């Protein structure tokens, strides 16, 4: 099949969950013999292909409100042009419900399309007023114009079923399983295994980095807190985080860490990984931490409980409860390590990229064969 993957920053994956999913799924689909085209924006990979995937680089308006839709508009136009010449996709995978207004173009050209709807974007604080109303509207459009919806978490599947009466194909993300972390990388960065707490997140309020810092500062922790992350449109929130940290010598901001070996070593070497994400589905950062055997302290929402279960992590809802969990981990590092091993075991059994890619392959086969249509989504009348 010819498969187009549209709506993300593309590959190599350097930004977030969608990009990681495109890289892991796309490379496996290509290895299985399919022609995979990934539409990319941002930093240009020097080659026209990457891990067997064909790359198409197109520009975007570099503004928060227009970046995604402007790039996807060009991507859809490019795919449409190839379709008119007989070389277009047999199926399109569109990531992010925000791109739903462009789905009629693909449908007009008889390109069957599945939309990965992502999390509850309208709950993100960076969207307010018109932005929030837009995301609420495009959820309905994704239901109306997609041949299939993809939900990466049961909580997201249930949301679309309850709100729209719409069925989704449930396909979670996979987890990279790390058996032998590069401890030399950790030493180069100045850290020792089990001797620090870790936060990895984009600096957005719904990821609760502020709560992680507040909870840590309330604790009597002796081991430092390492904060990894940044955000392109969050200067005010970033300033708030640094203000919360104050002059506490125990807290270090590393910024964005693009060295993937170092990032893996940080996950694997942390005494605890504090995960504050609250509005997404199956979060790739959480899966990566689990795959590295990190002892997870997660914000208490249904998405995180779904991924961790009852034994592979601990949960917090406010600074006081997080402070207690941090102190308990320092008091009993062995128990924290046991939870990390349970987390790795759960990730290796439930979140396997090879299985994920096979689900996507079957989905694309069903799309190309017209076994999935808008009628299979079944929106409410």
From TrEMBL:
Pfam families the UniProt entry points to: Glyco_trans_4_4, Glycos_transf_1
Keyword terms, alphabetized: Glycosyltransferase, Transferase
Residue ranges occupied by any Glycosyltransferase subfamily 4-like N-terminal domain in the UniProt entry: 16-174
Tagged with keyword Nucleotide-binding: no
Domain called Glycosyl transferase family: residue spans: 195-346
UniProt keyword Transferase, yes or no: yes
InterPro entries: Glyco_trans_1 (IPR001296), Glyco_trans_4-like_N (IPR028098)
Stated family: Belongs to the glycosyltransferase group 1 family. Glycosyltransferase 4 subfamily.
This protein's name: DUF1972 domain-containing protein
């Amino acid at each position: 099949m010819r498969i187009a993957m549209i709506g993300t920053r593309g590959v190599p994956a350097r930004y977030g969950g969608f990009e990681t999913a495109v890289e892991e799924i796309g490379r496996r689909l290509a290895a299985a013999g399919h022609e995979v085209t990934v539409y990319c924006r941002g930093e240009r990979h020097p080659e026209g292909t990457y891990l067997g995937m064909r790359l198409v680089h197109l520009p975007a308006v570099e503004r928060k409100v227009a970046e995604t839709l402007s790039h996807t508009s060009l991507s859809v136009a490019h795919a449409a042009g190839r379709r008119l010449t007989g070389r277009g996709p047999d199926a399109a995978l569109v990531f992010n419900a925000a791109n739903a207004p462009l789905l009629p173009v693909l449908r007009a050209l008889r390109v069957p399309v599945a939309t990965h709807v992502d999390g509850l974007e309208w709950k993100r604080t960076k969207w307010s007023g018109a932005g929030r109303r837009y995301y609420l509207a495009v959820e309905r459009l994704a239901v109306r114009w997609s041949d299939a919806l993809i939900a990466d978490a049961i909580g997201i599947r249930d949301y679309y079923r309850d709100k729209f009466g719409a069925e989704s194909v449930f396909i979670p993300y996979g987890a990279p399983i790390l058996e032998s972390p590069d401890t030399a990388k950790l030493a180069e960065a100045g850290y020792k295994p089990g001797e620090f707490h870790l936060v990895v997140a984009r600096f957005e309020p719904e990821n609760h980095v502020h709560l992680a810092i507040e909870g840590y500062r309330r604790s009597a922790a002796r081991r430092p807190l390492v904060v990894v992350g940044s955000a392109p449109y969050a200067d005010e929130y970033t300033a708030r985080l640094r203000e919360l940290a104050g002059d506490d010598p125990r807290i270090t901001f590393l910024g964005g860490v693009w060295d993937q070996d170092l990032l893996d070593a940080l996950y694997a070497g942390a005494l605890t990984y504090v995960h504050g994400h609250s509005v997404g589905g199956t979060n790739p950062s959480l899966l990566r931490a689990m795959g590295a055997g990190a002892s997870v302290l997660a914000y208490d929402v249904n998405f995180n409980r779904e991924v961790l279960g009852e034994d592979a992590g601990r949960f917090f809802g406010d600074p006081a409860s997080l402070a207690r969990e941090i102190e308990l981990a320092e008091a009993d590092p062995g128990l924290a390590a046991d939870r990390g091993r349970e987390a790795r075991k759960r990730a290796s059994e439930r979140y396997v990229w090879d299985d994920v890619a096979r689900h996507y392959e079957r989905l694309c086969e069903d799309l190309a064969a017209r076994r999935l249509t808008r009628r299979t989504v079944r929106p409410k009348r």
